Amino acid sequence: MKNTADNKLSKYIDKLYRRRKKTLFASLKRRKTESRKLKIFDIEQYNRELDEAEAAIERGEFSTHEEVMASVKELLQQKRNPTA
To answer: 26, 34 in Cβ contact below 8 A?
Structure first.
């Protein structure tokens, strides 16, 4: 027996007009294609990146919030006044 979500979805799709079914199908197909293009989550890679980031922080390779905000302000000023 179908679960409640499957049952509701099935009833909803049955009630759709033919044109809307085509649109829904195209949307689902597009999402499937897009999801294939996304990089699969790799926990080992994620953990390596965390280890690398922590090591960089321990070496002092980081920016404080104040430094980042000062850089952002400077970039915004340069964008507003490119010839200055």
So the answer is: no
